[in-house]
Design goal:
Layout lengths: L16 E7 L3 H5 L2 H9 L4 E8 L7 E8 L12 E4 L17 E4 L16 E4 L2 H6 L8 H13 L3 H10 L3 H14 L17 E4 L1 H12 L7 H7 L1 H15 L1 E4 L7 E4 L5 E5 L3 H7 L6 E5 L3 H16 L5 E6 L1 H4 L1 E6 H9 L1 H4 L18 E4 L5 E4 L4 H14 L4 E5 L2 E3 L3 H9 L4 E4 L6 H9 L5 E4 L8 H5 L17 E3 L1
Parallel strand pairs: 1-4, 4-5, 5-6, 10-12, 11-12, 15-16, 15-18, 18-19, 19-20
Antiparallel strand pairs: 1-3, 2-3, 2-13, 7-13, 8-9, 9-10, 11-17, 14-16
Helix pairs in contact: 2-5, 4-6, 5-6, 7-9, 7-11, 8-9, 8-13, 11-13
């Protein structure tokens, strides 16, 4: 959702923050090539995050969720500003999170029942998607490219952004037909427009698979070779070279016992990247190492950073085997990443600082130091692992902007559990809340089994993902409890 000020008259210095949903069976074609569109959007100086999945409540609708913002953010956001609807039936608008001022790009049904109408305040742009698609293709999947061309024109793609799409998309003529239709036939009534093209830090679009490959390749770059400098001078060339290196050194493993788990193994067989999987599957993939360390990535850059850290742990004899877990939420995501942030992750500079190695021995081995954010003696302290950390980061921004005293701890390591760090954080806040990514108490149970405090637990509703607004709107999270005196029942958003 855009900021609350988004419905006020636009100003040149106003933050741009837009959530777009591309919905329908025909979205599958454009989803496969959305990295090109995300790269084009990044030319406007925007951060871009893309997630694919299904709509809430078990809907059959395929959905591509896109967040574009002119400021840093860490999660997919909440609500919806623009829906691009590709199917022929009349949509169930309550599924989309539309609100007054939201935009709908669609092809209205030929026979629209009198008792069915658009929600009040929705700005609709009717587009003959089937007719425009039929000019160049007989396949319905082409409607997604047409619709994205329409959206590109409405948002004000720069010439360079449009050129990238026309050059790289396989269905560039369909994209252009949508763009040309919007140029000549649609009158813009909404306030959403991309910022002017910026000339700041270059951005690249990373998939989780490529983040894994780059992490393994970067771990084998020798110090002093100028590899980081090459990345900042020529990021496209650097990425191509390192992906080629990774293809020669990384093995992709599958298990009949755990068919949903993908394991990427490095050449020495001691560092793994693990897509999905429960604890049993993860430990099985690590081949029963006697001193395994399991780290959980928060985003694409974190995948690369933790793989570099994992190789350092092996080199320093601080681990027998290291696994970096990439949760399911990240496996269906694309992210635009600043080249500077990627270079920092590759060099390990940030690891040695806030996210670095803890010099103290804990449970017989050094641990990854957890990052702490927020006020000392906060009323509420959140603990989150993996992709949920991004949701908590955005929630803290909302809370602190309104004067709430909140804090968060972002551990990287899940095994062995960093007990001393968790205990220290719990002692510094009035109430501890563990934020889970799924409906199980996976992390909370670990904490309760090893720590002296008893946290409250927040889990998402079935079939949904937590958002920053879910945490922000929890009226009871500010209530003070002595979290060491008694247990707190699970709390579901």
């Amino acid at each position: 959702m855009a900021p609350f000020s988004a419905w006020l008259p636009a100003h040149s210095n106003q933050d741009f923050d837009l959530v777009v949903k591309l919905v329908g069976r025909s979205a599958s074609g454009v989803i496969d090539e959305f990295a090109t569109i995300a790269q084009a959007l990044s030319l406007h100086g925007c951060q871009v995050m893309v997630q694919t999945g299904r709509l809430n409540c078990g809907s059959r609708h395929l959905v591509l969720r896109l967040r574009i913002a002119s400021r840093p953010f860490y999660s997919m956001g909440h609500g919806c500003d623009v829906v691009v609807y590709l199917d022929q039936d009349f949509p169930e608008f309550w599924r989309f999170g539309l609100q007054p001022g939201s935009v709908l790009v669609w092809e209205p049904p030929e026979r629209l029942s009198l008792h069915r109408r658009l929600p009040d305040g929705i700005i609709a742009y009717p587009v003959p998607l089937r007719e425009l698609t039929a000019q160049y293709s007989q396949d319905t999947w082409g409607k997604g490219f047409v619709a994205m061309g329409v959206l590109a024109q409405l948002l004000g793609f720069s010439k360079e952004a449009r050129r990238i799409c026309l050059k790289s998309l396989s269905a560039s003529r369909l994209f252009d037909s949508g763009y040309q239709f919007a140029s000549r036939s649609l009158v813009k009534h909404d306030i959403y427009s991309l910022p002017l093209a910026a000339h700041g830090d270059a951005h690249i679009v990373l998939s989780p698979e490529n983040a894994v490959k780059l992490g393994f390749a970067a771990s084998h770059c020798e110090p002093g070779t100028g590899c980081g400098g090459e990345l900042e001078r020529s990021p496209t060339q650097w990425i191509a070279r390192h992906l080629a290196m990774a293809d020669k050194m990384v093995s992709l493993l599958h298990s009949q016992q755990f068919p949903d788990v993908q394991a990427y193994r490095g050449p020495q067989g001691k560092v793994f990247a693990l897509f999905r999987g429960d604890d049993a599957a993860i430990l099985s993939s690590l081949n029963g190492g006697v001193d395994p360390k399991i780290l959980v990535a928060a985003d694409a850059v974190d995948v690369l950073r933790l793989l570099v850290a994992g190789h350092r742990l092996i080199e320093m004899n601080r681990a027998d085997v290291v696994g970096v877990v990439v949760e399911e939420a990240l496996t269906a995501r694309l992210e635009s990443v600043g080249v500077g942030a990627l270079a920092e992750a590759m060099s390990g500079g940030k690891i040695d600082a806030a996210d670095g190695f803890d010099g103290a021995e804990e449970d017989g081995s050094a641990t990854m130091r957890a990052e702490r954010e927020g006020e000392e003696d906060a009323e509420v302290g959140f603990i989150a692992w993996g992709a949920t950390q991004g949701v908590v980061r955005d929630a803290l921004t909302l809370c602190r902007n309104l004067g709430m005293h909140v804090a968060a701890l972002y551990p990287k390591q899940i095994m062995p559990l960093p007990v001393a760090q968790l205990e220290s954080f719990a002692a510094s806040v009035q109430r501890v809340v563990v934020v889970e990514s799924g409906q199980t108490r996976r992390h909370a149970d670990r904490i309760e089994g090893a720590c002296s405090f008893r946290p409250a637990v927040v889990v998402p509703d079935k079939g949904t993902a937590l958002t920053a607004m879910d945490l922000f709107m929890r009226e009871d999270l500010g209530v003070t409890h002595d979290n060491r005196s008694k247990g707190v029942q699970d709390e579901s958003v």
